[in-house]
């Protein structure tokens, strides 16, 4: 390849096109005018490595690895402040979740990111029974980092658990059986089909 | 001012600001008969409320005087103040317009001596100063008002104060029995020059214009800088009357935002650059005087680039590329604190200022669809150029957010369009 063609290659915006094709609401990224209201309005703003406005600019600059391996979009708590205030009505919350999901599907998302780990735990929990099993979910969360910390966290939460038991907010048999939805097999078949369709559309199949 | 019997060869100009005055004068100086109506007691509109014009920083009173001289010299313009359009029906060449004149309670005998104002003690909010100060209930709207004639506010009519004003008048100029008058005129073409109004700043919730005293709008700031304005030309904070030295301007306050006004209001960048020179002029080399301009991008178009560069070269002025996310108030000092993230490096800031000025956006005073049925306007109510509007032509800010220079050009174009319509009528009737 000639030097000139290589130089042109540096300016090809493949990553923006990739985001537009594969990330939920990704086609909005090019609409950002870099005003900074999203970054300034985010309640977790100071903790983001790259605020949304910067993520959009990084996508447009083609910084694929930096964006997809970033912890930033996992910071979003879906408060929707940014969407409400964005002067161009970009669906910023949805784009952040879309980016996080895409990075996860590619296997580029940071492995130990707590939001990603919890999201996986929650998904497996809800997909298994067709409905969230709170006892299994919370115990799974406590024991996420090993047996010893799991016991410690469980003891910490014991008074709350007992209180919930007393007011019948917690099903003690949730660990064994029950608590599933009526047509668990049906839901699982639906989810399988949905995943097939999505994989095909996004080129993961 | 000549008496005029309107016919379908007459052009009606609605609005007596710089655009309406220009359109009326251009048409009249081409030999057409013009009926110029204005809702408020004086011609001049928003331009007369400015302290200075950009880019030359001269005083608007000068341009105003040129236009009033042209009006006085022209027999073909008939002016009605305190008059509004209530309905428009008809088609190009043949419009029927209903007008309503509110009583001024003062007739042509008035010499603007001011004796009535001295006799009156009650005060009303001063609309000319965006209600920042008060004015006597018998008043001259502003120093350069045209016609130079006082107004009696309806609130004192039928009271002892109204009678006192009447008694104080040595020229038999006060007539407290005046009544609102409705009448109908027939005209051939209409030039709609009702101009603009500032966007309601209280709607921009994160900026707290309705909650924080030291967050004001650019139009209010403009009045404060005028020596005849509510603070006598001093830059005093509304909360405690202290002189403000550390000033923040927020650009695109309401404009370019799909939550408020979708369009760019075009004038706010230049207005802020102009207003930053007021502060530089006021405080000279005072080391505490600081101006911070928060912007998305500065739109100082074509020849205004020079002005922009001059302001950029001023060490007292800092440009911060960021749309401010929200404002909070420091409770003990009343200082507004601006929060956001800048785009040049993504630095998070919490900047405290003495006073924050919102460079407020522009919206039409009257929306296109309110003028007559079938009028075409854009999403924000500005009149669009469309053949289906017949012979109703926008002049100035009724059709677009424009600065004074472009409003005048636009008003001249509107006059030319209206002249073509009445020429066709005249040719057909000859």
Largest sheet, strands/sense/barrel of chain A: none
Largest interface summary = A-B, 20 and 19 residues
Major sheet size, sense and barrel closure of chain B:
5 strands, parallel
Broad shape of chain B? globular
Second CATH tier, the architecture of the largest domain in chain B: 3-Layer(bba) Sandwich
Question: Spans of chain A with pLDDT under 50 lasting ≥5 residues?
Answer: none
**CATH class (first level) name of the largest domain in chain B:** Alpha Beta
Notes on the protein architecture:
- The complex is a heterodimer of chains A (205) and B (430).
- Chain A has 205 residues and is mainly α.
- Chain A has two domains: 3-106, Alpha-helical ferredoxin (Fumarate Reductase Iron-sulfur Protein, Chain B, domain 2, Orthogonal Bundle), CATH 1.10.1060; 114-202, no CATH class.
- In chain A, 59% of the residues lie in helices and 0% in strands.
- Chain A has helices spanning 3-10, 14-22, 37-41, 52-60, 64-68, 81-85, 92-106, 114-129, 134-142, 147-166, 184-202.
- The longest helix of chain A has 20 residues, at 147-166.
- Chain B has 430 residues and is α/β, with parallel strands linked by helices.
- Chain B has three domains: 10-102 and 180-195 and 365-429, FAD/NAD(P)-binding domain, CATH 3.50.50.60; 115-168, no CATH class; 199-362, FAD/NAD(P)-binding domain, CATH 3.50.50.
- Helices cover 24% and strands 24% of the residues of chain B.
- In chain B, the strands form seven sheets. In chain B, strands 3-2-1-11-22 form a five-stranded parallel sheet, covered by helices on one side. A five-stranded parallel sheet of chain B has the order 13-20-14-15-16.
- In chain B, helix 1 (18-29) runs parallel beside helix 2 (60-73), helix 1 (18-29) runs parallel beside helix 9 and helix 5 packs parallel to helix 6.
- The longest helix of chain B has 26 residues, at 404-429.
- Chain B is globular.
- The chains are: A mainly alpha (205), B alpha/beta (430).
